[in-house]
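Notebook, bench 3.
Goal today: get a predicted structure for Glutamate--cysteine ligase from Aestuariirhabdus litorea so we can plan the truncation constructs. The sequence was checked against the plasmid map this morning, with no discrepancies at the termini. Length recorded as 523 residues. Pasting the sequence as submitted so the record is complete.
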Amino acid sequence: MPQLSQQILHLFRQPEAREQLTHILHGIEKESLRATAQASLAQTPHPRALGSTLTHPSITTDYSEALLEFITPVYERADQALEHLRQLHCYTYRHIGDEMLWVNSMPCRLEGESNIPIAYYGTSNVGRMKYVYREGLANRYNKAMQTIAGIHYNFSLPEGFWRLLQQHRGEQGSLQTYQSRGYFRLIRNFRRYSWLLIYLFGASPALSRSFLEARPNDLESLDADTLYRPWATSLRMSDLGYQSNAQSSLKVCFNGLETYTATLREAISTPYAPYQKIGLKDNEGHYRQLNTNLLQIENEYYSSIRPKRVTQSGEKPVCALTARGVEYIEVRCLDLNPFSALGISVEQCHFLDAFLLFCALADSPLIDDEECIELDRNYSRVINEGRRPGLTLSRQGQPIEVKAWALRVIEQVAGAAGLLDEANNTRAFSASLMAEKAKVEDPSLTPSAQVLAHLQNRSQSFIEFGIESALEHRASFSQCHLDEAQRAELERMAEQSLEEQRVIEEQDSIDFDTYLEHYFAQT
């Protein structure tokens, strides 16, 4: 297993390099379902007081109209991002009446696909495209998939970090090219060790039977409504959640920007027979999906991590990456923690920072086909049975127990945590490693184990547990302080976003078919 070299540790203890570690940027995207007091999916439209879901920078919806998404600006300190997230929750609770925000990744009580409204973004071409994309997801997978929630953690290392690393390693070429290569090195190591994040932070070992309706499954029954896997960590990330058999042919092991973007371009332009059978439009000319290809757009590729670049208006993500390189990475494998009001804690953020810095600094060989298969199997095994005593994974073809390997990874991440401690004059990063190490030593401390223990010890169903937790969090947010300036700013943003949507709708000058033709012509 790679470890941080003494040369790297020495480099980032020097003042100029150490300073760069104080400029890491963080952003958090957090999804939460709006649910009724009876834990049914809210049927109400997105509250107007929260602004336009098309143009509001911080409060929008994801796949379902009831699936709120909170987006923080980027901050140099994770606790600043969390404070912004708290403010968004406080403000939102003032405008959703007696509804509550569901605290679990797996959804509240669902009452059939007809009662899962797809998110609506207005009448503009861009708004309609967002809606049709989600219509396509519903037709390709199912609407229940559109009610799963999670946390996305955005992480960006400053240009000065990459410049110093490039000079240290004596590599030639443009900084943009080197930075993109560096992020892909990070991503490859993430792929190798992200099973540890699933073990430590997975919090969805159970779900309501209503999520599956009559679909076949191999889950066990905990009670009349609750299904679970005894040793599972994250059913959200399993084949019951955001995994697609159609995408199994996509071998994206992140060896470089060119191969990554080429794979996505091909998937977006390759017809797929089952989706052709669905059809592009219905008999009345309404779109069923954006196209009949393997992927409608890049976002349909479900991965635990994505290389990202902020796009310009109307620009395809794959084109932005090709033109300007990787700007940041998006970690997508994090469940909502129902025991945390925000779904994520500052300690968890500190661990993620150390883990991701380690992934960026450690050696990261290219991933061949054999290792790619091995990584996928390890990931799936921890998702479905990560807390099973004596569970083994495969490392370079050899079996190794989860506990032994997890302790070894944390030991290596400690070097990165130490660098972050020194740069930020704290012990918080090393302390976060100790907290996570305790979960490795005692699996009962993991969120997934705590959820099951809660259900079993209190004889609660998944839905009853969700109601109890959501009501506790609603009470705390309903009483939280939101000063006048913060409230006024969020009200201004809501009104401005509604006006921006109106202008966009008025300025549309081409029909939707032509708009789509122009959009896909970029690829």
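Residues 484-507 form the longest helix (24 residues). The chain has one domain: 6-521.
Flagging this for group meeting.
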